[in-house]
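Aim 2 progress update. The chain analyzed this quarter is reproduced below.
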Amino acid sequence: MTLTNVLLRIGIWFLALAELAVGVVATLTPRVFYDHVPWVDLAPPYSEHLMRDYGAMNLALTVVTVAAAITMDQLIVRVALTAYLVFAVPHLLFHVTHHQHYTTTAAITETAALVVAVLLPTALLPLARERPPVGARPDKPPTAR
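Predicted structure tokens:
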């Protein structure tokens, strides 16, 4: 396994675990998520429905991301990273324009975290370019079936 594959797999697992943690807490304990996850309660009002939907969406994205991390299939990896960005970019844009209830420190910290959530999958996407399947020998062409 190449260094590129290792870095890609580690990055994908990191994203999957982050989505899983958010998804489980927001789905199973939406009030805990709202009250105790940094910055969430700064965008009132609380909505159990919204928190549970957000959690379920994170769990759905976790399924796709875990499939990518396990299979390392180029198409699934690209779909998972793109799906993550489809969520992360508008999420970042919303938050950077809605800091009215935030302290300066909270606004900076939240923005930094959300920028990382955009930069990581953006950096991983080029690593998912065409490459031989995991376990294939580069010096030997694949055999026909």
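The radius of gyration is 18 Å. The longest helix spans residues 3-28. These observations will guide the mutagenesis experiments scheduled for the next reporting period.
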